[in-house]
Amino acid sequence: MATPAAVGAPGAPTPPRSRKSVTGTRRTVAALFLLPALLLLGALVVYPIGYSVVRSFYDQSGDGFAGVDNYKALFTDDGIRTALKNNIIWVVFAPTVATALGLIFAVLTERVRWGTAFKLVVFMPMAISMLAAGIIFRLVYDQDPDKGVANAVWVGVHDTFAQASAFPKAHPGRDSPLRADQGGFITRTPVRAGTPVALPLVGVAPDQMPDDAKKAVRAQPEGDKVTGTTWQDFTRGKGVGTLGAPDPSEVGYPGMRIEAVKDGKVVASTKAAADGTFSLPAKADGAQLRLPAGNFKEAYNGLDWLGPSLVTPSIIGSYIWMWAGFAMVLIAAGLAGVPRELLEAARVDGASEWQVFRRVTVPLLAPVLAVVTVTLMINVLKVFDLVFIIAPGSSQDDANVLALELYRKGFSEDQPGIASAIAVFLLLLVIPVMWFNVRRLRREVRR
Hints:
The chain has 447 residues and is of the alpha+beta class.
């Protein structure tokens, strides 16, 4: 019977050597180094999550067990359902648009000299806190065009194609020869050639009168023409001025449109001069003079960006302004690693720049695009600051999101059970996205 080889004999297996450090085994050292991080992780992450899960099953007082009633409220409470709907809109549009803009910026700035400066400008909003960005865009979206940049631009473009009237508040005074007609005003009786017509109006503030307005004068008869004056029939001071006749301090309505109407049809039209006088041809004889509604159209005041219908898209726009730079920087880093020979080979084969972009660049950048999109999806699920700051109280319910509703339920409405249920629900929404991201990163490492 063979005897086992002696230890240390030639060819005998060498027993594993115990690797120790001066403080003990390596496993113990690793545990000691990890212990502070594990304690912090447990205190700041694990314990709050566990407590929120437990608290979500209790009622408002925290003493009675509520079961799943708090979770039922997630789908029956109108405010939470609106928040859930808005979160879906955020997750679908905000990451998609921000990633698309980042891709476009990264590709287009790759070949220009000032590309680095442009990237710096686009990325700069990332240095601003959400609170500061919210305050900035609250001013940007102000309804008053003199304050809000968005409406200043929008009104400027609108007025380029459809100029607003200078007399939106003008209307006839007492004992006026005019009466209301289809948003404008028309003379009560037909006019005659050779007899000057007076068309007095009031209601325009002196500082709102056109700059080219001049002192109103009484029109002179011109043979077979219909002449007249339209002016601001108001003189400052008690007991001064004559109604129905131009006074020395009263000014005309320059640019006021006057139409001669017979049997419902416009037979002639003209515009008043700077002193308010006007003249119509002989065919206006026997017609009624009408000041059409276009003379009194209210000035266009822009869009209600923070109203119920536009508040969510507006806030998403501010988020994209902040995070498009983040997407651009990551995509530009990925683009720098794309093999240039592949792009040049595609161009040599006759591919256009659009084909190179769509069939070569985008597929090669797919992993980076996935990272950016998933990161932004996780971020928008937790969005709170922008909605809380930008949305005014009148439309905050329409812009509500889950994170804001959690805050409102927990602090404003004193319903910690429902707030905890919302927190758990948010965690459940984030976990699949995080799992997908981790799984994809592991797959990339294996490659």
